[in-house]
Design a protein that fits this description.
mainly alpha, 4 helices, 62% helix
Length: 68
């Protein structure tokens, strides 16, 4: 399951991001700019660290690692 887009949209919502419609100008708040920045930097890093933590506990069975 791909949770990244949902977490990113949640970060934008928490930051107060305002979506623009056609022919409409929207000025984003400082919180929205921070949410965009963190959503593109910190959030992927945290998700990658969590994936690495889970994968580091996984080990292959001996039948897959034995030379043929």
């Amino acid at each position: 399951m791909a949770a990244g887009p949902y977490l990113y949209s949640a970060a934008l919502a928490l930051g107060g991001y305002a979506a623009a419609r056609a022919d409409e100008d929207v000025t984003q708040t400082g919180g929205a700019h921070t949410a965009i920045l963190l959503g593109f930097t910190l959030l992927p890093a945290l998700l990658m660290a969590a994936a690495l933590a889970v994968q580091s506990r996984y080990s292959l069975d001996a039948r897959f690692t034995a030379p043929r």
